[in-house]
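User: Hey, my collaborator sent me this sequence without any context and asked if I could get a structure. I don't really work with proteins. Can you help?
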Amino acid sequence: MSVRSIAEHFGKIFNRVAKITGSEMNDALLNNGCLGYKLYGEPSINTQQMINWIAHWIAQDGETIGKPTHFETRNGKY
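Assistant: No problem. I've predicted the 3D structure and written it out in structure-token form, which is a compact way to encode the shape of the chain:
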């Protein structure tokens, strides 16, 4: 899932418009989870459920560590 689509989804949940600056790059940093699936099986929770849980946590003022996500980092150093 793209950062943009997830942000827009959270915007819908919270009845707000996601304000996104900039644009996606022509290339992407991708991860192949096949080995993890082979070793541990498919995740039991889908993306939609995870987003809903996170939205609920945010709505309930759940504790966060206040650290940046570094989602914009493109050099692999997070």
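In plain terms: The chain has one domain: 3-59. You can pass these tokens on to your collaborator as they are.
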